[in-house]
Design goal:
CATH topology: Rossmann fold
CATH superfamily: P-loop containing nucleotide triphosphate hydrolases
Largest sheet: 6 strands, mixed
Number of strands: 10
Structural class: alpha/beta
Helix content: 40-55%
Distance between the termini: 52 Å
Radius of gyration: 19 Å
Length: 264
């Protein structure tokens, strides 16, 4: 049964803990986090500022190493890989989309999309790249440079670049943070379509309840711990849960501060 479960999961984190600093100056960013992201799912990660959501994404993507615990990605235990193997896994099996588009201005759209393949020493499949650009609505802009595109179009190029390598999972960190509301909706609809129609696994950090409502599931985190989840979320229910989380975090921090004063 366990093997069947593993087959359905793109990423699994088990008892992941991440700390920074030492002893009395130690900061706990993640505290015993266990969760999984199923293949073909679209998950949004939300939490108050400093809750650990970006650290969770970075550990899941192999960009940061947990202090303890296990991260299994596409069947690979990340702690078992050396830096060369980890770099190869990120390059071949993981796609990244960030708030900043990270496109090279001297390259055309199709050249930017093909860049990860070239860096990996692989010959780009230009037919597939054309298909991916058609899918993101940029088939007629393939020879344009980033400066000739709108912000939304540039983010579509970044998504196409992430899709081009056919990754096991795409990690997106505030991908619509620099976009206006209408353009953000188009980009989020594209990510959702990639999950629903193409079976792509998407894990997205966001602070926006509307953005989170495009996901199948919203995973909440507070003070480094998982704090519940919502399925088929509506923006109003996400916003309400975030308000409750904010109040909870304030109470917990106030209680911790009071206890520290009492111990003096």
């Amino acid at each position: 049964m366990k093997n069947n479960i593993d087959v359905l999961e793109a990423v699994r984190l088990t008892a992941v803990r991440k700390t920074y600093g030492r002893r009395e100056n130690e900061v706990v960013a993640l505290n015993d986090v266990t969760t999984a992201f199923r293949k073909g799912s679209f998950t949004a990660i939300m939490g108050p500022s400093g809750s650990g959501k970006s650290t969770l994404l970075q550990c899941a993507a192999g960009l940061d190493q947990p202090t303890s615990g296990s991260v299994l990605l596409d069947g690979h235990e990340l702690s078992d890989l050396d830096e060369t193997e980890l770099t190869r896994l990120r390059r071949d099996r993981i796609g990244f989309v960030f708030q900043s588009f990270n496109l090279l201005p001297v390259l055309t759209v199709r050249q930017n999309v093909a860049l990860p393949l070239r860096l990996a020493g692989r010959m780009p499949d230009w037919k597939r790249i054309s298909e991916v650009l058609e899918r993101v609505g940029l088939g007629k802009r393939s020879n344009h440079r980033p400066s000739e595109l709108s912000g939304g179009q540039q983010q579509r190029v970044a998504i196409a670049r992430a899709l081009a390598t056919e990754p096991a999972v795409i990690f997106a960190d505030e991908p619509t943070g620099a976009l206006d509301t209408r353009t953000a909706g188009d980009v989020l609809a594209l990510l959702r379509h990639s999950a629903v129609s193409d079976g792509q696994t998407i894990v997205m950090v966001t602070h926006d309840p509307v953005a989170a409502s495009y996901a199948d599931r919203v995973l909440f985190i507070a003070d480094g711990r998982l704090a519940g989840e919502l399925h088929s979320p509506a923006p109003e229910s996400v916003a309400e849960r975030m308000t409750q989380l904010g109040a909870y975090v304030d109470e917990e921090r106030h209680g911790d501060a009071t206890q520290r004063q009492g111990n003096r």
